[in-house]
């Protein structure tokens, strides 16, 4: 029997437990909420909002306010300085550094020991459990797993306290047994200079029997490209003939899918999307034939959902959109996701928007970001629209998009305005204007607000595409200290802050 055949038995009980997600979603969530409130009732936050008097979801929603990072920042900063029992019992020593807010360059998300175990590592375990369930012939544990990680640094001057990418915290605290099946070695995985790390990873992994890879699609593609350069091979399966799965997350896979399929031509290759953020592990693609993800309901995460498109009876936007627990969601609606977790985040709006595709079990797609959208002229363009539009234009022209960002060009003296897209192609279209027209056409087909604003070019003119030079986005990441790790390109923005920076760097 292969090693995978032996290890497979470890996952069988969990595979059975996951069946509760089909019919018992709200029950699982009530259990999670009761446990979180009970554990945190004697913290500073729990006493302030009377956790000991909360009995059920209605009490919880009435007592506890909705929070963004700004509301919790003061608590978190005191925790980072060593204070105990603030948002969660005990002292929290690990903080995941992620993209900043309006007022700060970075956010620092607390990662408790119990949260690490019951949220982040639980998600990693379930990724494998579901993959093995769907692929009975897998030999994944007969080889090595290539896991990309970020880096970390000391948190103030506290002993054994760290700040860094979530992936670095996961690697730092991982069960030592996992190190026998993962590559690269720990010191390489945690290097802060991505260019040096990329080269070392490629050399260390070149002659290993890699059976799975895990990471953010953009950064993994960069590493794999280096592997191909060193090896001189045409396809990745010539280097790693037993490679069978890519566990990917962090950014939408759509812009990268074609490039991976050209790089890895093996018919046995599988792709599994995960929704793992600094704030928690939320979803897994449980069915390889269904792009929507299963919402993970029995981790230490309690979910709420705020209607994005809520309106008043007269049709105007609502100032008080409805917030509902899991059982209150409707399929097809756009929701901002709020979470309460054993890492001390309470009714925390993480900034992602989701749409549910089913209730038994609860499955969803990530539709965009509450802040990464363009609505300068009432067009309500979200990331989900952008990804579908680019996919269509690429399919029609044979182009491949490596990275992109888009922002509005505001009205001139003739009341003309448009969207401006800065795209770095890995394969350029033969006719850039045709690509722009196809993208514009598809956006109108899938977004009625955009279509209405584009009607006869009266409000919004056809979008403009500017071709980005080679390595533009890598250079931008490097300049901003964000090369590697889990940093993301801001895909859509209502301001021109990001695109102007990139345009200046795009000059020959």
Structure, explained:
By secondary structure, the protein is an alpha/beta fold. The protein is built from 18 helices and 21 strands. Strand 7, helix 12 and strand 8 form a beta-alpha-beta unit. The radius of gyration is 23 Å and the shape is globular.
What are the segments in which pLDDT stays under 50 over at least 5 consecutive residues? 311-317
Amino-to-carboxy terminus distance: 58 Å
SSE-based structural type: alpha/beta
Q: Report the radius of gyration as a whole number of Å.
A: 23 Å
* Overall outline: globular
Percentage of residues in helical conformation = 25-40%
* Strand count: 21
Please give the largest β-sheet: 12 strands, mixed
Biggest sheet, strands in spatial order? 6-3-7-8-9-10-11-16-15-14-12-13
Number of helices: 18
* Strand fraction: 15-25%
- Mean pLDDT comes to 90
Q: Key features?
A:
12-stranded mixed sheet, about 25% strand, single chain, about 500 residues, alpha/beta, 4-stranded mixed sheet, globular, 18 helices
Summarize the structure.
With 508 residues, the protein is of the alpha/beta class.
Describe the protein's topology.
Layout lengths: L2 H5 L4 H6 L2 H4 L1 H16 L3 H5 L8 H7 L5 H12 L13 E6 L6 E6 L1 H22 L9 E4 L4 E3 L7 E3 L1 H8 L8 E2 L2 H4 L4 H12 L4 E6 L1 H15 L13 E4 L5 H10 L6 E8 L2 E5 L8 E3 L5 E7 L15 E3 L8 E8 L6 E12 L2 E8 L3 E2 L6 E2 H15 L2 E10 L8 E10 L4 H15 L1 H7 L9 E4 L4 H8 L17 H9 L3
Parallel strand pairs: 1-5, 3-6, 3-7, 7-8, 8-9, 20-21
Antiparallel strand pairs: 1-2, 4-5, 9-10, 10-11, 11-16, 12-13, 12-14, 14-15, 15-16, 17-18, 19-20
């Amino acid at each position: 029997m292969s090693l995978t055949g032996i290890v497979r038995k470890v996952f069988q009980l969990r595979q059975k437990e996951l069946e509760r997600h089909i019919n018992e979603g709200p029950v699982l969530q009530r259990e999670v909420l009761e446990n979180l409130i009970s554990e945190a009732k004697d913290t500073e936050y729990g006493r302030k909002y009377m956790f000991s008097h909360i009995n059920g979801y209605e009490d919880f929603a009435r007592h506890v306010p909705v929070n963004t990072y700004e509301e919790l920042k003061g608590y978190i900063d005191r925790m980072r300085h060593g204070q105990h029992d603030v948002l969660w019992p005990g002292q929290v020593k690990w903080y995941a550094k992620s993209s900043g807010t309006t007022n700060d360059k970075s956010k620092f998300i607390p990662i408790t020991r119990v949260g690490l175990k019951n949220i982040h590592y639980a998600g990693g375990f379930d990724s494998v459990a579901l993959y093995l369930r769907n692929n009975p012939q897998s030999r994944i544990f007969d080889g090595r797993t290539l896991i990309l990680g970020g880096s970390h640094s000391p948190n103030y001057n506290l002993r054994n306290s760290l700040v860094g990418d979530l992936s670095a915290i996961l690697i730092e605290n991982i069960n030592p047994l996992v190190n026998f099946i993962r590559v690269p070695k720990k010191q390489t995985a945690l290097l802060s200079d991505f260019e040096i790390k990329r080269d070392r990873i490629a050399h260390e992994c070149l002659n290993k029997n890699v059976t799975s890879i895990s990471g953010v699609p953009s950064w993994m593609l960069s590493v794999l490209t280096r592997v191909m350069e060193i090896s001189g091979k045409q396809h990745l399966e010539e280097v790693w003939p037993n490679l069978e799965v890519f566990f990917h997350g962090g950014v939408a896979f759509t812009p990268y899918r074609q490039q991976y399929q050209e790089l890895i031509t093996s018919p046995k290759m599988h792709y599994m999307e995960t929704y793992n953020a600094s704030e928690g592990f939320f979803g897994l693609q449980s069915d390889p034939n269904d792009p929507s993800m299963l919402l993970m309901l029995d981790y230490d995460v309690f979910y709420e959902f705020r209607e994005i498109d809520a309106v008043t009876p007269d049709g105007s936007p609502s100032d008080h959109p409805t917030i509902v627990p899991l059982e209150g969601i409707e399929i097809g609606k756009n929701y901002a996701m709020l979470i309460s977790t054993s890492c001390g985040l309470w009714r925390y709006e993480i900034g992602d928007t989701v749409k549910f595709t089913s209730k038994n079990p609860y499955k969803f797609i990530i539709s965009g970001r509450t802040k990464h959208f363009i609505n300068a002229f009432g067009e309500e363009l979200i990331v989900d629209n952008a990804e579908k539009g680019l996919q269509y234009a690429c399919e029609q022209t044979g182009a491949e998009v490596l990275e992109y960002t888009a922002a509005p060009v505001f009205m001139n003296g003739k009341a003309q305005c448009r969207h401006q897209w800065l795209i770095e192609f890995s394969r350029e279209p033969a006719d850039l204007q045709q690509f722009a027209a196809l993208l514009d056409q598809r956006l109108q087909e899938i977004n009625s607000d955009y279509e209405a604003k584009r009607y006869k070019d009266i409000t919004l003119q056809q979008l403009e595409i500017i071709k980005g030079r080679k390595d533009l986005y890598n250079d931008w990441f490097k300049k901003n200290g964000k090369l590697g790790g889990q940093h993301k390109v801001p895909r859509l923005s209502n301001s021109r802050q990001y695109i102007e920076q990139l345009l200046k760097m795009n000059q020959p």
